[in-house]
Amino acid sequence: AQSVTQLDSQVPVFEEAPVELRCNYSSSVSVYLFWYVQYPNQGLQLLLKYLSGSTLVESINGFEAEFNKSQTSFHLRKPSVHISDTAEYFCAVMRAGSYQLTFGKGTKLSVIP
Amino acid sequence: ETGVTQSPTHLIKTRGQQVTLRCSSQSGHNTVSWYQQALGQGPQFIFQYYREEENGRGNFPPRFSGLQFPNYSSELNVNALELDDSALYLCASSLPSMTDTQYFGPGTRLTVL
Questions:
Q1: Cα–Cα distance between B73 and B95 in angstroms, integer?
Q2: CB–CB of B48/B100 below 8 Å?
Q3: How far apart are CA A80 and CA A16, in angstroms?
Q4: Which of A10, A44, A49, A90 to mutate to test the interface with B (most CBs of B within 10 A)?
Q5: I need a labelling partner for A40 at 20 to 30 A (CA). Which of A107, B9, B90, B101 fits?
Q6: Which residue in chain B has the smallest CA separation from A35?
Q7: Residue A1, Cβ neighbours under 10 Å: how many?
Q8: B52 vs B42: CA distance, rounded Å
Q9: Interface contacts A/B by beta carbons within 8 Å
Q10: What residue in B sits closest to A32 (Cα-Cα)?
Q11: Is residue B1 scored above 60 in pLDDT?
């Protein structure tokens, strides 16, 4: 079975500062990795995903995540955050050959003006 | 392009009652997944439907059941409601490839009293 650990439940950061949201996973088989964002009273939106190939993946709004197989991590980073990035971020894994997403408990990012 | 929609937005039931939640897939998507998100937790996979058949199930009891219709819309039915069933129920639609993005609806907030 797969599991996901998001190491920080809440991360406050000042506007225009860099941020890293940490995600570690556990799986005995190959997995795909995802980051989703959830704004208040909304559903989940895909931010970025790693399927194969380059271990560094980027989103259109400046986030990036790097797949590190040896450390079983997929940390999310942004060099300069905006107020609009305030949301809850969920890391998820999907076992190769499965359709089921397994989510972490989420990290609430609060950007302080 | 119409996104994933869910109804109702909110619902209050009492223990022992039955509930039906509805989901309309994004245009062109024939696969629907349902997730339960308890307060302060990440979403948990309930089951997935593809071409009107259940295509995978998470660790949920049989009183959680579903349907998918020829137009790919879907229902989640929960019988004999328990207090712990109070949660946000999310529907996600996708194309059948396991690497295709799951697009989430805004969810239905169920409260069981």
A1: 13
A2: no
A3: 4
A4: A44
A5: B101
A6: B101
A7: 8
A8: 27
A9: 58
A10: B99
A11: no
Percentage of chain A exceeding pLDDT 90: 72
pLDDT of B93 reads 92
Specify the pLDDT at position A92. 96
Distance CA B24, CA A33 (A): 26
Of all residues in chain B, the one with the smallest CA distance to A5 is B42
Nearest to B108 by CA among B3, B38, B11: B11
Angle, CA A63 vertex, CA A8 and CA A7 arms, to 5°: 10
B74–chain A nearest CA distance, Å: 17
pLDDT at B61 over 90: yes
B84 SS3 class: helix
Residue B2 pLDDT class (50, 70, 90 cuts): low
Q: What is the mean pLDDT of residues B45-66?
A: 93
- B40 to A105: CB separation less than 8 angstroms, yes or no: yes
Q: From the CB of residue B91, how many other CB atoms can be counted at a distance below 10 Å?
A: 30
Helix (H) or strand (E) holding A84: none
In the stretch 9-48 of chain B, residues with CB closer than 8 A to chain A read 31, 33, 35, 40-45, 48
Picking from B42, B55, B107, the nearest residue to A104 by CB comes out as B42
Minimal-distance CA residue of chain A relative to B102: A46
Give the separation between CA A44 and CA B6, rounded to whole angstroms: 13
- Given a cut of 80, whether residue B59 has pLDDT beyond it is yes
Q: Do A4 and B42 touch (CB under 8 A)?
A: yes
